[in-house]
Structure formats: structure tokens, C-alpha cells
Amino acid sequence: MFKFIVIFFFLILIGNSNASNKEKIIENLKNTKNLDFNFEQNINGKIENGNCTIKYPKKIFCEYAKSNNKILVSDGKSLVIKTITSYYRYPIDKTPLNLILDKDFLINKINVLKERIVDSSLINYTINENDIEINIFFNKDTYDLIGWQNTDVYQNFNITFLSSIRKNRIISKNIFKLPTQN
To answer: pLDDT (tens digit, 9 = 90+) per residue, 90-125?
Structure first.
């Protein structure tokens, strides 16, 4: 009986080690409740950086470094971008973040899409949905989401790269509360 159990677990380990990139990415997404990361964002050549927290589904809070106290917040329904001098509010379903921040949507899409390996270290899936094209990138070793590129609501080309990723941390629910307009 002991030999049978050992062989059974060995077969499970072999099966898991041979799982496809797609299966590993999907499993990683399923097990991720939230992400905390640093980012670098390039919008038409203008580079900004900062820190973000994502809580699935569709919640995000980002603080930008050195830029008029800029924050980006989604409560899952609306998206607000606020600086010292400006305040913009959008329905999240009118933005590419509506898709990027929906892990169930990502899982369903990845399940049927063909992957592309980039520079032998990135796994890319191209999602076309409602006239929006989003390229999603995952790390080939960790299977973590490490970035995306898309065109934003103003038709600007946006590339976002994630680093120092931490998953499933205890986070305050209040950070996703939309800021008020000045």
C-alpha cells in the first residue's frame, strides 16, 4: 500500500511538472486574490512609475511617483484618475482595465488563445475584445502577470511593466474607495 501511495504522488508530481505554460498561468491566476507591485508605464513615450495594488475583480489603486500626487483608483465600477489639478472619472467598462482587472475573463481568454514566447522569458497572449486589443505578458519562470500593452481611452499607446510582485497580501478595503473631486 505504501508503494502505491509513493508511486501515486510521484505520478502527480511528474504530471504537474509537465503541465503547459497555459495551465500554469491559469492555475496561478486562480490562486491570486490580489497583487501588489511596482510599475513603469510608458504612454506615447512619457514614462511614469509608482506602486499599485490590484484586488480581483476590477479593483486597483495606484500611486504615481513624482507627479502631482497622481493616483488611479477603481472600485470595480468606476475608474478615477486624480492629480492636484485634475480629476477624471470613467465607467470602468469603457476602459481596457475592465478586461485586464477581470481574472475570470483573462482565464477564459487564455484558455482558448495561442501563446507566443517573447525573448525566451515572456509568455504573451493577445486579446481582442470589443474593438480593444490587449497584449498580456507573463513571466515564463513564475507565471506571474508582468505587464500589458494596449491603447487607452484617448487612443494613446500604453505599455505597463510590473516588478517586485507580491501576491495575496492583507490589504485595506478602503484603498479602493474613490477619491472625491477637489
So the answer is: 999 999 999 999 999 999 999 999 999 999 999 999
Lay out the sheet containing 71-75: strands in order across.
Answer: 87-91, 78-82, 71-75, 59-64, 46-55, 34-43, 157-167, 145-151, 132-139, 122-129, 116-118
Question: Which has more confidence, 27 or 4?
Answer: 27
What per-residue confidence (pLDDT) applies to 18?
Answer: 54
Mapping DSSP onto H, E and C, the string for 4-57 reads HHHHHHHHHHHHHHCCCHHHHHHHHHHCCCEEEEEEEEEECCEEEEEEEEEECC
* CA separation for the pair 41, 157 (Å, rounded): 10
Which domains occur in the chain, in start order? 20-176 (2.50.20.10)
